[in-house]
């Protein structure tokens, strides 16, 4: 059989490959590991005509054809090794502190026998990248995200814990907006603009954070992921609206009960008065109030779908292959 020629794009480098149509995806992933140092279980391939098939399927069955351009996303072994080394050092310090506390025999009064939810379900470390401009501002933004009342609310409710909250360097991974390493070991967020002349808006970065928190539970961007991610965004919007209104209930009579998590999320944004996600509507002066609200809701749902698709396309997280 005639070989197929494909090109792999990874962080600005192009790697041409020639494969027989009967070659398996497992073989392709091993070749890519040799070229890029990205382990097979961390590789995510993006290309037109992609099909969900097992690793022993052929590249032809996976939708790869002659001339296909493929984008490879995933952390390298060196990056993961650095994270593990940092985590190991942190664990060593915690062990030393525990041993000191035990030797001191200090008795502490407590009203609870278990750690508080705030201490367990949180971001345990904040680490801006010191080699990038203005790291103090990056730290302030990461701290604001970590202490955002709505984010803390959903983390406690869903029992999410993250080891390290840090940032992505635009010049190193320009195609990524977020990355979740090992289901919560670390979350990396794109904080800065392409030219390092400022930071992305807070709500944009926080929405990426909700996306990456969902990867604590679900690896692939399947229906389970979409449902939970939409629920998290809805709960963030509801929490903020409840805080502003002094209540924990959505009781606007102009909306019917939502039929899906996405609709509930959009409804929460509309009721919260969001100007970022509402989008333009086609309402006219003759529309009834209910019709205008319906059109605004539809426009908001469309905007949310587009934004979430962009996050999926620019997310470096994927589930390990079985």
UniProtKB/TrEMBL annotation:
SUPFAM superfamilies: Ubiquitin-like. Residues 4-73 form the Ubiquitin-like domain. It comes from Polyporus arcularius HHB13444. It comes from the Eukaryota. Residues 304-315 have a biased composition (Basic and acidic residues). This is WLM-domain-containing protein. PANTHER family: DNA-DEPENDENT METALLOPROTEASE WSS1 HOMOLOG 2, UBIQUITIN AND WLM DOMAIN-CONTAINING METALLOPROTEASE SPCC1442.07C. PROSITE patterns: UBIQUITIN_2, WLM. GO terms for molecular function: proteasome binding. Residues 109-119 have a biased composition (Polar residues).
